[in-house]
Amino acid sequence: MKKVFSFVLSFILLVNVFSQIAFANGERFIVSTEHKSIINIDQPYEDDAQSSGLIYHYSLGISREGNTTLYISAETVCDMDVVKSGFKGLKVERRQNSNSSWSSYYSYGNVYQDSWIANFEEELTVDPGYQYRVICKHYAKKNILNTQTISNTSNIVTF
User: Fold this and answer.
1) What is the pLDDT of residue 131?
2) Is the distance from CB of 60 to CB of 41 less than 8 angstroms?
3) N vs C: which end of the chain shows fewer Cβ within 10 Å?
4) pTM of the shown model
């Protein structure tokens, strides 16, 4: 019965996720209704995560809001037996142009929730004249011996 419930809940979550995804030119985007922006999530998606077991879906994206506001959105969806999920080493990086190397701009550190699903949304004031991206490791913990992390890098936004 627990597996049936888990399957049904996973199906409902997937339907909900795909109902908020728009496709254009073969790329995936999340439409943010709260901020009325589009976040490119052309990252390794849920099929890559399912092979190791605990994390079913993950996403990380950024968008430009006005002249100096960077909107960050991240999600980690796990097996329902997971007791803690979130993001390890969540940080914003920037560079001056495509020929420059990335440097750390702002760090949120580790962000966890005592749940099988974790969401992170934040607005950050940034300096114009740079390209920005966000990096993190999506994290899931079922017990002390059973954890999973998946590295992820967002799209790039220029201010």
Assistant:
1) 97
2) yes
3) N
4) 0.69
